[in-house]
Every structure is written in structure tokens, then in C-alpha cells.
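Need the bound structure for FE2/S2 (inorganic) cluster, inputs here:
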Amino acid sequence: MKKRTLKIKRFNPTKDKKPYWQEFVVEAEDTDRILDALNHIKWYVDGSLTMRRSCAHGICGSDAMCINGKNLLACKALFKEVGDDVTIEPLAGLPVIRDLVVDMEPFMEHYRTVLPYFISETPPPSYGERLQSIEERKIFDDTTKCILCAACTTSCPSFWARGEYIGPSAIVQAHRFIFDSRDDGAAARLDILGNADGVWRCRTIYNCTNACPRGIEVTKAVGEVKKEILFSTL
Ligand code: SF4
Ligand code: FES
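Answer from helper R.:
Posting the output first, comments after.
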């Protein structure tokens, strides 16, 4: 076990005028996760430390936070990867509710805008499921992996500069349906994403791809949606 220093940005709007940094020293193995250390602090040192976490296995997306300057899931980030001394802040670009918890509503509002559900104008076939070839499924396989953690959108300078920008996560969610051969809602989604705060605010900076804990090629997906908008208007 080694001693590690966690410097955490704290803010409780009911008593703090502005955020401040607080240091905690914990003992942890190289293979321990940042979430283990945060849980230790919350359970045994300072119960007022506030953060979100649920599955603890990289599936629910609730514990995305900025760790040593990079958006990561605390449950997937190991000390041996991030170092002995760790700085932890809430995700940038969303209002802080308390400590490491941000208000996800602006993010979810953008997600809902892109109609992130299956739309069909035809009834399902009488013989059962709506079938699709392996090749058709492959086209949007990558974007089915999104867990809505917001790591991509909150690492995007275009989103920081203008919170109305729909952001890479919502575009990934739209991509998942736009390129699904069974779906009939692509035109409506492309219309939404072609507006002033849609895909054209992306400057291809690649922060989103680097931040994604699911390894989704986010910038590529955004590029494919841009291309689809251009072709659909020809
Ligand atoms: S694309 Fe990746 S980083 Fe963005 S919300 Fe989905 S899982 Fe998180
Ligand atoms: S707690 Fe669910 S992804 Fe980390």
C-alpha cells in the first residue's frame, strides 16, 4: 500500500461562496481504482463528500469526472494509470450541484432533442422481428456502446464556449438511429442536427474521442453525420 494524495474540488452551495480545494491522504494499491479511494474518504473520513456512482464497473456512466485533467470514469481509472497524486474536479461545462456532482439536465435535454429512439412508419412483419443483415448492423455498431457518461461533451471546447451546442454525445446517440436500416426517423434527426447549434459547431478537435471510456470513435461518428446531412441536401 502506498500513500496517495487526493486533491478534490469541493463546493456546497448552501454554505460556500465559491469552490475550494481540499486534500485527503489515503493508502491504496497501484491496482486500486480512484473510486475505491473516493468511497474510502466518503465512508471513513468525510461523509459530506458528494459524488455519483452506481455500477462501479464502467457500465452506468454515472461517475465521470475530471481526474488529473482528463475526463475518466472513477471506477475504471487505476492509480497506476493516473499517478500517486490525483486532482479531481467535476465535469466542466455543466452547473455544479455539489462537489463532484454536476447537473446533467442540460446534457439530457440535448440528448432528448435528437429523438434517441426507434421510429418506424411501418408495422413489424407478421413473421416476427424486423431483420437486418450483419453488414447493416455493423454500420452503427460503435455508437450502440454509448453509456451517456457525458465525458465527451464536457471535454469539448465548442460546448464550453456555447452550451447550446448539442454536443458529441447527442450526435453519437443520433448516429445510432440515423444509420439503422430499420429506422425511418433519419430525416427528422438530420434536420435537427443541421441547425446552427448542431453538428457544424464541431471543430474536429478530437477531445471527445480521447475522452470516451467506451472507445467509441466519436469524432468519426460526428463526421459521418455531417456527411449524411450534406448528401441528404443534394
Ligand atoms: S460517446 Fe463515449 S464519452 Fe460520450 S457519452 Fe457516450 S460513452 Fe460517454
Ligand atoms: S460507477 Fe457506473 S460507470 Fe462508474
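Comments: The chain has nine helices and seven strands. The first helix runs from residue 34 to 45.
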